[in-house]
Amino acid sequence: TDLGYGTIRAVIFGAPGSGKGTIAQRIVKDFKVQHISSGDVLRSHISKETEYGKQIADIVKVGGLVPSKMLSSLIEIELEKKVPGVKGFLLDGYPRTIEQAGILQNLKSPNLVVFLNVPFDTIIDRIKSRWIHPGSGRIYNLEFSPPKVEGKDDLTGEPLIQREDDKPESVLRRLELYQMEAEPLLAYYRERGVLQEFWGTESNKIYPEVFKCITETYELDADY
Ligand code: G5P
Ligand code: MG
User: Fold this and answer.
1) Is-contact 123 117, C-beta < 8 A?
2) How would residue 222 be classed by pLDDT, with cut points 50, 70 and 90?
3) Percentage of the chain exceeding pLDDT 90
4) Where does AMP bind (predicted)?
């Protein structure tokens, strides 16, 4: 089946540590979508010390929200990229305010919003043992999904790092901001009939439900 580029216009939404990146990586393996993670885009600017990276480094470090305008244009650039073989996009971490949702709506309105509803106490434990490969954004967890070799990325062998904003104070700030922004954003997408909620504490149980939802939403057959 050829859906044509742009048919899957999905967003994955949830609290910090709810498993957006983890579930997104599985979706990308099973469906031909472009994964656009706002956090990965920002972290790459910060580590390359671009002009923009320098401006936002301190905000991201303490778990604040970066200004929407600049971030939105960076996301737009990613959305405009024509990636060969790809049949849509999956936005992860964007939008997270009503302002951003409005910008995206005018650009490419999402037709599915996957909401991961994971309890906060589960999240706090997970984030403590998260490690990432900064080059690719690949995510590990010392308990849930450890790397094959301690401290090293499975594919490149490069060193893994912990995120600067995974320190307890920053995590708390991120959770607070999430609590302020989430409800209006969920209402926005609920009104538009595109919101699908997944409740749980284990990504391995949530993912099969998400998989089923995607195949049903886009009427994909097995040979997709
Ligand atoms: P990010 O990068 O978008 P957050 O805070 O929204 O950051 P985060 O922390 O990346 O979200 P996640 O992607 O939802 O979390 O979760 P994950 O990484 O997949 O999973 C967390 C950990 O749990 C991992 O170690 C994973 O292996 C493990 N895990 C997953 N499933 C399970 C499970 O079932 N069991 C167990 N035990 N473990 C599991 O944004 C970062 C910053 O960038 C700025 C902000 O400053 C933000 O704080 N930013 C924006 N600012 C303004 N507007 C925006 N739209 C912005 N987007 C980013
Ligand atoms: Mg993430």
Assistant:
1) no
2) low
3) 90
4) 38, 43, 64-66, 100, 163, 174
Residue among 24, 15, 29 at smallest CA distance from 201? 15
Q: Name all residues whose Cβ lies below 6 A of ligand 1.
A: 14, 16-22, 38-39, 42, 59-60, 63-66, 71, 93-96, 100, 126-127, 130, 139-141, 143-145, 165, 174, 202-204
User: Ligand 2 centre and the CA of 54: distance in Å?
Assistant: 21
Q: Which residues contact 51 (CB under 8 A, 6 or more apart)?
A: none
Q: How far apart are CA 9 and CA 157, in angstroms?
A: 33
Global pTM? 0.95
Q: Give this complex's ipTM.
A: 0.99
- The answer to the question of whether 137 is labelled as a binding residue is no
